[in-house]
Amino acid sequence: MAAATEKKPAGSAKIRYYRKRVRLFNLIDKIKLWPSRTGQLHGIRTITVTGDMATLTTHCNKQFVIRNSLNSRAARWLRNKWAVTVCPECRVPAWKLEKYAATRFKRHHGSMLENDTRHPGP
Ligand SMILES: [Zn+2]
Questions:
Q1: Domain housing 47
Q2: Does any domain span residue 2?
Q3: What is the total count of domains within the chain?
Q4: Which of 2, 56, 69, 83 would be 64's cystine partner, CB 3.0–4.6 Å?
Q5: What spacing in Å lies between the alpha carbon of 40 and ligand 1's midpoint?
Q6: What residues sit around ligand 1, an ion, with C-beta below 5 angstroms?
Q7: Is 20 helix (H, G, I), strand (E, B) or coil?
Q8: Quick check: is 39 in a domain?
Q9: Does residue 28 fall inside a structural domain?
Q10: What pTM was computed for the model?
């Protein structure tokens, strides 16, 4: 419900392409969104990866333990954008949703995000 005007350059939601087979951990580390089973998108606060498992903590303080599967429910939900609502407690900012909405998943085109997990950025 923030009424503040956003100063964003035009075209900020430029379309970006990721591979369909991008690893789930890399993807969620990038977009910082998690679809729950009820179709709600949560904002991810932290991801702790332990081998092939990861523990997510959302901004509404829910925890999810997930596997790094390519074909998990969540991976499909994210690729197909099936999540229908946004968690009101997570307060996912609009720019993040726009960025996600502008993300396309292609089989033969786009980043695998393999070398992009070292630093979350400023
Ligand atoms: Zn939430």
A1: 16-106
A2: no
A3: 1
A4: 56
A5: 8
A6: 42, 58, 60, 87, 89-90
A7: coil
A8: yes
A9: yes
A10: 0.79
Is residue 85 included in any domain, yes or no?
yes
Q: 11-23 pLDDT, tens per residue?
A: 567 899 999 988 8
Backbone φ and ψ of 111, nearest 5°: -85, 145
Q: State the CB neighbour count (10 A cutoff) for residue 22.
A: 21
107 HSE (CA, 13 A, CB side): 0
Contact 17, 108 (CB under 8 A): no
Q: How far is the CA of 108 from the centre of ligand 1 (A)?
A: 33
Rounded to the nearest angstrom, the distance between the alpha carbon of 70 and the centre of ligand 1 is 23
Per-position b or e across 57-90, b if 16+ CB within 10 A of its CB: bbbeebebebebeeeeebbebbbeeebeebbeeb
Query: What is the per-residue pLDDT for 2?
Result: 46
Give distance in angstroms: CA of 7 to centre of ligand 1.
26
Please, are residues 32 and 96 in contact by the beta-carbon 8 Å criterion?
yes
Condensed to tens digits (0 to 9), the pLDDT of residues 41-67 reads 999 999 999 999 999 999 999 999 998
